[in-house]
Amino acid sequence: MFNSDLTAASLLLGICTLTWARAMHFSPMGGVFVRFVIGILALLGFILLLKGLWLPEMVLVKGTGDYRLVLLVALLMTFYVALIPYLGFLVASILLFALTCWLLDRRAHAEKHFLRSCSAGIGLTLLFFFAFKYGLSVPLPMGVLWG
Amino acid sequence: MLTQAAIALGNIFAWPNFGFLTLGTLVGIVVGCLPGLTATMALALLVPFTFTMPAMQGLIMLGGLYIGAMYGGAISATLINTPGTPSAIATTFDGFPLAKKGMAQHSLVAAAYSSMIGGLFGTVLLLFLSPPLARMALQFGPAEYFWMAVFGLTIIATLSTESILKGLIGGALGLLLSTVGISPIAGDVRFTFGIPSLQGGIDLIVALIGFFSLPQVLEMVEEYHVNKHIGAFSPKPGITLEVVKELTRKPGLLLRSSLVGTIVGIIPGAGGNIASLLSYNEAVRWSSRPEEFGQGTIDGVAAAEAANNAVVPGALTPLLTLGIPGSPAAAVFLGTLLLHGLRPGPELFTEFGEITYALIFSLAVSSVVMFVMGVCGSQWFARMINFPISFLAPMVTFLSVIGSYAIRNNYLDVVAMLGFGFLGYVSRKLGFHPGPIVLGLILGPMAEQGLVQGMIIGRASGSIIQYFFCRPLSAVFILLSFISALWPFLAKSYRRQMKRG
To answer: Domain check: are A47 and A21 in the same one?
Structure first.
């Protein structure tokens, strides 16, 4: 359990301090709206801080959700985006499909889904790749190894 | 005029015009349902194909595509909680909860039906009231835009079902995010951290995909050990009739939403996203059961979809009558008109009346075609929620990457989308709904430009306060903002009194 109001209020007041420090250097007309918004945000953050102290909202971190799996998938997404400039969109997407299907189905003891989901995903990746690149002429991210 | 209109109507149904209209509508639906591919992008992609066509055929096809794309956004909004186009933001609020209840087809049929009504209503207004409405839109100055943005921000009170304070914070955060990049008047470079790509600001679609789709993927993964699918859908006969009957019993909801959509569409710079949010807000306020909104009610879907499709004829009104493209999509239409040697203005309705009326009627006819396609396809689209999450999770991630990259062909947009996705997931856990954040991001540029330009004009004319507060249209928006902001409290106390009395 943690006090979500206090966490959010601290984050907000931190953002307000940082942005205000930068907004000090803006011209009067370029900064008027920014300073106005930061002022409102700081005021709301302060109210949230007071609420967190008197009427806190507690959030259960470990509920029914599988947060370890969420973290793994979030890491996988990050690797996917990081790999695109090297492997190219097509290869990185095929890897994403294969690894996500494997990770989810293995963890949920649903191995029978793996082959079906994975092959459908790879088929879909190829379909979208060719449809976008050659059908619609919409460019997709290219990689060093595979354009 | 009547003769030209009758000839134009006949031409639409003639072969191959009707075929092109149907093709345009179908392509629009497909493009609209893919997150990140907007109606404007689809129109721009299709324009080169119209070079070799006669002007009428090309414009008819583009009209069908615009209408189809507006509806298409509702498909992904309902099935994967990701608005296919920015105009479908408000559709996610009730569309996805309906899908989770196994009522995805109800949501899709409601979207198709209300989109058709919105399109037809807007077309009728475009036909008969376009000149006075376009002149009214030109009365909007910086002060009116500023107050309109403030009025739009009061929707936060409706969107924040859990905590109004957190909703307001979300809205203010969205406004702050909207200031990233070069400032509109003074040219200051703000919060770019030395990254040149950020000078153009944060793209709305990138933020939209990040805030809506990736958190949804992570939430699906979070519950995967309990639920292997988003919901369970099994087609049942009679859903279309049931939904159409239910919505037909609510003409006020559909007409009000269509009117909001048409008026917002006419105002240059305000698009389908603002229209659908305003209309959703009005639907909540006028409903006798406002507590059902956000939990999965077809009224919420209908309000958003009727408004965003009514925007299409609305956006074409200032273009066709005054030659002012009020939206990026209307600018593509302007380009197409000029390519075919047609100059917007009064001549469009006299000398080139047959072509212009064909374009206007094509919006109405394609609304009907879109409804037929939407209804026929709804039970097939709805089956998507039966797909295992192990397939849907990477698919949504993969589509999110395509969508965010396709906007500006910029890899940094993909990175930004990923960042917004993680931020959206954490903020949901802390009780912040993405709706107000995105609302702030949409209305921020309009509010800032209106405020700064208004201050400059006000200073030059003697009084800033007088400029912002004493103009008739500004006064209307100030009054509306007050009513809208206080409405949840007024409605609550009224209901309490009704219960007592």
So the answer is: yes
Q: What range defines the domain where residue A96 resides?
A: 67-135
Residue linked to tokens 């009084």: B463
- pLDDT-derived band at A75 (thresholds 50, 70, 90) equals very high
CB contact under 8 A, B166 and A8: yes
Opening angle at CA B123, ends B122 and B124, nearest 5: 90
Q: Which residues of A touch B173 (CB under 8 A)?
A: 12, 15, 41
**pLDDT at residue B356, rounded to an integer:** 84
Decide if pLDDT at B129 tops 90. no
Q: Is residue A25 part of a domain?
A: yes
Question: Which residue in chain B has the smallest CA separation from A19?
Answer: B191
Cβ-contact A69, B222 below 8 angstroms: yes
**Coil vs helix vs strand at B232:** coil
Which ipTM score applies to this complex? 0.88
> Does residue A7 form part of some domain?
yes
Residue with tokens 């709804």: B378
Q: Where are the extended beta strands (E) located within B87-196?
A: 181-182, 189-190
Residue A16 placed within a domain: yes
Do A71 and A55 fall into the same domain? no
Chain A residues lying within 8 Å of B172, measured CB to CB: 37, 40-41, 44
d(CA B93, CA B253): 17
Give tens-digit pLDDT for B241-266: 999 998 899 888 999 999 988 888 87
DSSP annotation string for B285-331: HH-S-GGGTTS--HHHHHHHHHHHHHHHHHHHHHHHHHS---SHHHH
Interface contact flag, A110 B390, Cβ < 8 Å: yes
Half-sphere exposure of B197 (CA within 13 A, CB side): 13
For residue B228, give the chain A residue with the closest CA. A108
Q: Which residues share a beta bridge with B189?
A: B182
Residue A124 sits in the same domain as residue A73: yes
* Residues B53-64: b if buried by 16+ CB within 10 A, e if exposed: bebbbbbbbbbb
The answer on A131 and A83 residing in a single domain is yes
Q: What pLDDT, on a 0 to 100 scale, did the predictor assign at position B135?
A: 67
Residues of A in Cβ contact (< 8 Å) with B452 = 29, 32-33
Nearest to B284 by CA among B190, B160, B382: B160
Same domain, A103 and A84: yes
Same domain membership, residue A28 and residue A51: yes
Residue A77 and residue A50 share a domain: no
Tokens of B406: 């396709």
pLDDT at B428 over 90: no
Q: Is the peptide bond before B16 cis (omega within 30 degrees of 0)?
A: yes
Please give the structure tokens belonging to residue B281: 């807000």
Distance of CA B119 to the CA centre of its chain: 13
* Residue A147 within any structural domain of the chain: no
Structural domain spans, chain B = 2-500
Count of domains in chain A?
2
Is the same domain home to A84 and A130?
yes
B131-177 residue pLDDT tens = 676 667 667 888 988 988 888 888 777 666 667 888 889 889 999 99
